[in-house]
Structures are given as C-alpha cells and as structure tokens.
C-alpha cells in the first residue's frame, strides 16, 4: 500500500483535532461538575463521560471517512453496525468511567474498569470497521498488540479523569496536560483498533465532494457528533463564565457584608473595636470573671483639650492625632488586653490584672505614651489625658455600670487635675453635677448667659483710668454668677473655648463702640488670649472682622499673651504676633517673670507692654528679693521702651513700692474691682480701695474673684484669701 504525503498528513491530523476537541469538551464539562456540589454534580459528570465516549467514536469515525474499502456494503447493515458501535462506546464510557467520577469503591472496581473500557472501545471500533466493509482477519500478533494498546489507553483515560477530579484547576498547565493525555489516549484507541486492517487499508487523496457523494451518511454522523462536542464545549465555557460572574458577585457581596460587619463593630478611623463591640467583649469577660473568680478592670481614657485642638488645626489633623494616640496606646498595652475607641476622644482598655500596682504602672505607661509629641503642620503638639479606673465586681456587675463608673472617675481626675482616679461611690453625685453643668455650658452662648466684667487699669500713682481688662462671667440660671475657674477648663475640654474666645472679642469691640458713641474716646480694653486661640488658624481674621464690624481702631485692643503661650511654639507665635502688630493691635506680655523669660525671644516679640505677675507684688513690701526682681523687670522694660503694668495691687504699701520703683500702670482690687460696663464709668462709682477696706473690716460683702476671659488660671488680679 502506498500513501501520498498529503494523505498521510490528513490521516494523522483529522483524528488528532477531533480528539483534542472531544478531550477539551469533556474536561471542561467535568470541571463544571466539580464546581458544583451534591446531586447537581451527577448530570454534569454523566455528560462528561458521555462526551469521552462520543469523542472516542468520532475520532475513529472521522478517520474512516478517508478510507476506500475493498468491497461495497449495504446501507441498513452499515447503519446498524455504526449505531451499535456508538452505543457501545457510550456504554463503555458511562459504566467504566464511574470510578473516576466517584473515586470510591473496591480495588477490583477501580482497577478493573479501565481494562473494560479498553475492551469495550476495541469492540466498538471493530464494529465500525466491519460497517465500513473491512475484512477482519486478525492474527494473534495483531490482536495482542491491539489489546495492549487499547488497554493502556483505557488506563490513561481513567487515570487522567481521576487525577483531574482530585486536583482540577490547579493551574493552566495542569489543565492542558489533562486534555493532551485524553486526546492522545483517544487517538491510541483509534490506531490500536486499526492494526488488523492496516494491510488492507487503501488511502488516497480524496476531495470533500467525493466524501459527501460516497459516504454522506458517515459524514453526516461525524458532523452531528462534532456539533454535539462543540455545543458541549460552548455550553461548558458559557457556564464557566456565568459561574465566575456569579462567584464574583457572591464574593463581592460576602466582602461587602464582612466590611459592613467590620464597620458596624470597629472604628473606621483607628480600626479599633467600637463601643458596641467593646460592650460585647466586656460582657463576655464579666461572665468569665464571674465563673473563674478572676479580676477585671477597665481604664477609660479621655484626651484633655482635644476638641479645641481639633477646631484649631482642622478635622483632618485631628484625625491624624487620634490615629497617633491609638498607635501609642497599642504600643504599650499587651495584646492579651482589649483596646477600643468608644467616643470622639475616648479610649478604653480592658485588663485582667490583679494588682492595683500593675494597673497604675500600666496606666502611667499609657499616659506617658499619649504625651509623646506629634508633628502637625510642622508644629510639635503634645497631649495630656485623664484616666478613670473601675473594677469588677466592686464598682459594677454589668458593662454599662463599669463604663459609667470609669467615666465618673475620669471626670473626677480631670476636675482634680490628677492623671488618673479609681472610682469611689462618692463620685456619683459629683459626676452627675459635673455632667449637668457641662450640658448647661453648651447652651450658655446660645442662651446669652455669658457676660463681661471690666477691671480698671490705672495710671500710677492715682489715675486716671487708662484701660480695663476684660473678664468673663457665667450668669447661670440656678447657680448664679460663676467665675471662670468653674467652667473654663470644661470649655477647653469640650472644644468650646474658641467660640467663647471669639464671643469675648466681639463683645469687647461692641462695648468700645458704645463708649465711642457716648464720646468716651480714651478707653482701651485688654483681652487675654489662650494658647488654643493663639494657634487657631482664624484668630487674625476673627480680630479683623470684629474691629471692622464695630468700627473700632485695632490700637484700642491690647492682646495679652503669657510667656508660656508665646514660647510654646516660638516661630509660629512670633509670626502671628508680628502680623497682629502690623495690623495695629497692641501686644502685652502677661505674667512676665513666671515663665521662660527668654531675652532672645523677648527682643523679637513685638510687645509694647509687660505685665508684672501678682506673685511678685503680693509681698513686695515685705521681701527685698521681690523688690529686686520687680526693679529688674521695670529696668528691662524701659530699655526696650515698653510700658509696665503691675497686677494684683491690693494694699497701699504695695502701691507705694511699685510707684517708687517706677511702675507706670497699676491694676488690682485696691484701685478697682471687676464690674459690668455700665458701672465701670458710672458717675459716683465708689473707689475700689474703700470697698476693699470695708470688706476687710467686715462691713461689706466680699467681691467675687475675677479671672481671665478665656483661660483658667489667667493672670488677672485676685483678692486676698479673706476677701474672696
């Protein structure tokens, strides 16, 4: 038998392409089965097995289209034998590939069916050859070779599907290997079955027209089989895409649900557990502590003055500060303890420590970590915090009770200027009153309950009045007139201090305008500016707006800054003060002598006035050391061409010493007490010295202690202890 080169290529290529198509379809359908679970796998696996059988039959039949049998054949017999051949291939695949589908059964079942597959396909292919009109005179040698090849191919097909079922989709290379093995095994079954007729097979170049004319039925059957294989391949591919899309949607929904659950139980800024998750953890910890009789302690931490810093620097910088604080606390709290953020600037730690010494030691580490400075807009910002401590079961048996009592202890620590405090039952009433007062304070500005008093600043030695210092009071509807020490610290912690300070500036300018309208043109007002206000981005704009709104010259306002405030961030403070000075505002350096007293920065500050702190004035008539310090301050101010104001003048002896040392302005209870604006310049207003002397003799009620307009502990004059 002679074969042309083109015929040889066609004989090899067509079966290989058909086998590859069938193998690809079977493997993809099998993958769709593995992608499903339970009973839904069965139809897909049966389909995959059927595709293997169909692929084996079509691979063999497509090659026979090129054959030219030695004798003709009748149509009925041809159709019957081919139908039996197809049925036998399908049955062999469905029955013998079951172990590869189930991967269960006895040793005989698993390893006996691959040879059965090879024998069944061999019989099916021999039927196809018989249908094509070939005479099957099989020698012993040919039969042995055919059976060996087909049996090995059966093992390869079963093994490939078994292996694919166990580790499917590990990689693209793995997938391609399974398809190649199946395709080669299908071709091996074909060529193994062709061995008995190789000597009688005649192949010649043949056109498509000749195939359709002479073997149109076989061509139609092959076309239908190829269409079925292609349809199965397309269906499996489409199903895979739909499944991937559905899986993507499911994964997206699952991720979204997980994220929603995380957001519901975690703080989105610091990623710490939030209030609800912490309460649940605390509830479980209480149950465990009750069962095991183990200790349980919570530390509630509140940042001091954070709201004011947040308002001064902006929310973005405030968020960075909170993240910094969370990281600092995490750096010192062991992982076995739980940390959560339960409020805007409140953190809580759940501890299982037994010793109060261990608790206070860890609390000290936490507070030290929080106080580490952070750079915000090229400025070092340091925070302090207050801590309340509650213990189970002494201070409460529920999460709500423990958190509430820790909060009370925290407020007690703040009010007592302590770093931390353990809860005591007596704190209940104090904390309740404090919270009520804080709630009232939030409404003080909207309800117009804040008022200004003015204390005269007199030209030495006996007047006239040159200016007045602005002092704030709170006219509380239940508690009466409250001094700043009762509410300013809370205003700072609640983030209200900037709003209160802005109101003071506007109210002072409005009062100056009223005096100017009455023809009183010599008055100037001094306003204390706190550290938070100084570093508030809109301080300069607020001052400009206020003087413009009321038509007041900036030179009528003296802005008082303490040394500590000015030196906290020297470069930034200097830039702001110089800008204010250029706009015409007067700058006074308050409490001079009690802070840094840095001559390097003093000569750079655009201050026009120094205020001598009352601590040097109180015993100036008794202590030569104080007189020496005051004399040095006055000499320094004169050299720098600054005015000198002494505050806290309460006795004639103090006044005389200050005048003798060269002080130019005096302020204190001896010269004038803080009064409302309508009394400051009222005709016939009693001299302040007479009022103080009457108070000392018990003939008049004590004057309320004045205080700074914006900051607790600000350096305005206060009366002697017996006059408060």
TrEMBL record:
Region listing for Disordered, in residue ranges: 691-724
Top-rank EC class of the record's enzyme: hydrolase
Species in which this protein is naturally found: Frateuria aurantia (strain ATCC 33424 / DSM 6220 / KCTC 2777 / LMG 1558 / NBRC 3245 / NCIMB 13370) (Acetobacter aurantius)
Biased composition (Low complexity): 700-712
GO terms assigned for molecular function: cyclic-guanylate-specific phosphodiesterase activity
EC identifiers of the protein: 3.1.4.52
GO CC terms of this entry: membrane
Presence of the UniProt keyword Transmembrane helix in the record: yes
Key words, A-Z: c-di-GMP, Membrane, Transmembrane, Transmembrane helix
Limits of the MHYT domain: 7-200
Domain EAL: 434-688
Segments crossing the lipid bilayer: 12-29, 50-67, 79-97, 117-138, 144-164, 176-199, 219-238
Entry-linked PROSITE patterns: EAL, GGDEF, MHYT
Domain GGDEF: 294-425
UniProt protein name: cyclic-guanylate-specific phosphodiesterase
Entry keyword annotation includes Transcription regulation: no
Pfam (any one): GGDEF
